[in-house]
Amino acid sequence: MINQDFLERVEPYEKWRAMVYMMCFMHSVVYERRKFGPLGFCIPYEFNSSDLEASLLYMEKHMTQSQATGSAMSFKAMQYMTCDVQYGGRITDELDREMFQQYGSLWITEDIFKEKYCFNTLITEYNYHIPDYPEHQKYLDHINTLPDKDSPLIFGLNPNADLTYRSKEAVEMINVLIDTMPKESSGGSGKSIEEEVKERLQADLIKQLPPDFIEIEVEEKLKSLRGPKGLTDTGKNVPLNVFLYQEIQRLQRVLDIVRKSMLDMVLAIDGQIIMTQTLVDCINALADFRVPKIWQFDPTGVEISWLTPGLAGWLKGLLDRHFQLSNWLNSSNRDRPVSFWLTGFSNP
């Protein structure tokens, strides 16, 4: 899109070149910001080169008209057309729109014409300046000197955002490697993957699951459960008891999903029910000692339980959470516990 002819379209050339570089830089930042997932955008948007081209076309016409009429450039208008119309036309979340407008207020300004203007407001290992070269090739040479690993600060993010991104990238790569490993048979045992998973489920995993919370029994026990000392209220008149009830409901929902999927895997392997793709994914996950996705996320991708990399750690978390809630519910003195395992709750 950008070539030598493009850099010489509008006078004064040095200001036009600065505008072009700024706009390309801004495009690359918002494009790559998506790699940080929910930390980058609440909703990922498909920004593409047509957004950049339309924004540059508007800026070209605006600067040409300003030069012809002798009027000052309106950076407010350029901010609006870029952040609210061209790119903003794709944005549906209000927080994302506000964030994008902040980019415009910082970068689509007259300050970019100043010598040694810097995109990053904080000093980092590498400071991103706007170069000024008459030749297009020198811009490309300058871009090739930019660091391979960008600081999250240039995106307006905390340095920990890069750690989160790198960790997620590593986990995804490891998961792909595990998923692509041969699963036809498991070594010299002669058993198929399905047979080994079925044996593990029947001999160990299903038996490990704690008993269900019966809703009627929970309701009855809550009625006599006291609150803080000095208060006579019991049952659901005590906020902590309401909290306990909600936590039990949440854990029971997860327990139902785990128990049903385990039993369905055994039935599907035996051929008694249809082997769905969800069950296939669960079997493959258990074969690799990983946590099946449906145990941690609902169909919309919302987290419904705790996240741990290994199956053993996740099941231990299930047992420990059940132990804490059942002990609280069945306490002999009908009083609340002395202390709580806060991270064992869904809503600490």
What does this structure look like?
With 348 residues, this protein is mainly α. It folds into two domains: 6-157, Region D6 of dynein motor (Helicase, Ruva Protein, domain 3, Orthogonal Bundle), CATH 1.10.8.720; 189-344, Up-down Bundle (Substrate Binding Domain Of Dnak, Chain:A, Domain 2). It is built from twelve helices and no strands. It has helices at residues 13-32, 49-69, 75-86, 94-107, 136-144, 160-179, 193-208, 215-223, 239-270, 277-287, 293-296, 311-329.
Distance between the termini: 52 Å
The low-confidence runs, each spanning 5 or more residues with pLDDT under 50, are none
Shape: elongated
CATH fold annotation of the largest domain: Substrate Binding Domain Of Dnak, Chain:A, Domain 2
List keywords for this structure.
348 residues; mainly alpha; Helicase, Ruva Protein, domain 3; Substrate Binding Domain Of Dnak, Chain:A, Domain 2; 2 domains; 12 helices; elongated
